[in-house]
Write a structure and sequence with these properties.
elongated, 7 helices, mainly alpha, about 70% helix
């Protein structure tokens, strides 16, 4: 089973990743090494989450920014958090977007 799992991992990675994982004795070792390479240790992951949460809390619409680019910036932050297993409900995300809009959007926010 270990040989099959190692073969599957090797078939799924490129040559640079192969060089990192080829010296491992088990598929689990290979997986763990690749996981640390791409996600980092628990401490690194927590630091990334902390930074992204901070960015999402301080998020606001820039003066000369249109709604499309603002949503794109917000989505990038939320997707990065989601990839690190930090998720928010849709209602939380909608409320955050509505709170960060400029004053000129106030009538629309009130209607929504």
């Amino acid at each position: 089973m270990n040989a099959k799992a190692k073969h599957i991992v090797i078939c799924a990675i490129n040559s640079r990743e192969f060089n990192r994982a080829s010296s491992c004795n088990s598929a689990k070792e290979m997986w763990d090494r690749l996981e640390v390479t791409y996600e980092g240790t628990k401490q690194v992951k927590d630091a990334k989450i902390s930074k992204l949460v901070h960015n999402s809390e301080l998020f606001s619409m820039n003066e000369d920014e249109d709604i499309k680019s603002m949503i794109t910036r917000f989505t990038n932050i939320i997707n990065a958090l989601k990839s690190l297993d930090k998720t928010y409900s849709n209602s939380e995300l909608v409320r955050k977007i509505l709170r960060c809009l400029q004053r000129s959007w106030l009538p629309k926010v009130t209607i929504i």
